[in-house]
Structure formats: C-alpha cells, structure tokens
Amino acid sequence: MKVAVTGAGGRTGSLVVQRLSKRPGMEAIATVRSVASKTALAQKLGCPESSLRVVDIAASPSVVTEQLTAALAGCAALVIATSAVPEMLPKPEGAPPGPPSFKWKEGQAPEQVDWLGQKLQVDAAKQAG
C-alpha cells in the first residue's frame, strides 16, 4: 500500500516514513517543503529519490493543490505531519517573568500551516482519489 506523508522532513514525519518503509507491503511517499529537505531526508533515511516529493505548504493555494495532487496520485492513505514551527523571541533584559513570546516565518503562521495548509492537504487527497 502506498502512503503519502506530508511534513516528512520534521521529527514526527521522518519517523512515520522510517516506520512505514520497514513494513512489508508499504511504500512511503515523503513530502517535504524544500529541495534541501529532500536531499537531507534522502541521506538520513536512505530513501530513493523516487519516493520523495517537494511540496511547499506555504506557497499559494493553487500551487500547493497542484503539487499535492501530483504527490498523492496513487496513494491509498495520507499521514499529515505538517505543523507551524515557532521561533521563541528573546526576552528583553530586565523584563518581568512571564510566558515566552513567539514569531513565525512569513507565510508559516499556525493559521496558514495548521489550518489552511492541512485543509489543502485533505482537499488534494480527495481530488487525487
């Protein structure tokens, strides 16, 4: 069975790909956000290039849908392991104690990645069949 894993360049996604690849009868199609992540994942897991796809979840919705639909073609299942990755902001010197503050890269805030990006993934999976 062919299973697509989005967010395969992250900790959870790479573990899912690794585990799926060890199971008889399973083929993992790993999607990552960049060519650099694709190269790193291929080296880390020893994945063949044919099982890796670049899909930039932060791109425009039409581009994401097109890339995802192509990546999901022939897959029987989808594992969504994408998530927004925050960067903790340093506290100013002498600031009172309190919860940390975060920022996200442009176009990669939780709403874009965790809500809209995952909705696009589900819609693309439906479109791919």
Task: Please explain how this structure is put together.
Residues 88-109 are annotated as: Disordered. One of its GO terms (cellular component) is chloroplast. The strands form 2 sheets. A 4-stranded parallel β-sheet has the order 3-2-1-4, sandwiched between helices. A two-stranded antiparallel sheet has the order 5-6. The protein has 129 residues and is of the alpha/beta class. It contains 4 helices and 6 strands, in the order βαβαβαβββα. Helix 1 links the parallel strand 1 and strand 2. The radius of gyration is 16 Å and the shape is globular. It has helices at residues 11-22, 35-45, 61-72, 110-128; strands at 2-6, 27-32, 52-54, 77-80, 87-89, 101-103.
Architecture blueprint of SSEs:
Elements: E1 2-6, H1 11-22, E2 27-32, H2 35-45, E3 52-54, H3 61-72, E4 77-80, E5 87-89, E6 101-103, H4 110-128
Parallel strand pairs: 1-2, 1-4, 2-3
Antiparallel strand pairs: 5-6
Helix pairs in contact: 3-4
Number of domains: 1
Structural class: alpha/beta
Radius of gyration: 16 Å
Strand order of the largest sheet: 3-2-1-4
| CATH 4th-level superfamily | NAD(P)-binding Rossmann-like Domain
CATH class: Alpha Beta
Strand segment count: 6
Helix coverage percent of residues?
40-55%
Low-confidence regions: none
Task: Please report the distance between the alpha carbons of the first and last residues.
Answer: 14 Å
Annotation field: number of helices: 4
* CATH architectural category: 3-Layer(aba) Sandwich
What proportion of the residues form beta strands (DSSP E)?
A: 15-25%
User: SSE order, as H and E?
Assistant: EHEHEHEEEH
Question: How is the main sheet built?
Answer: 4 strands, parallel
Oligomer: single chain
User: What does the average pLDDT come to?
Assistant: 91
CATH topology: Rossmann fold
Shape: globular
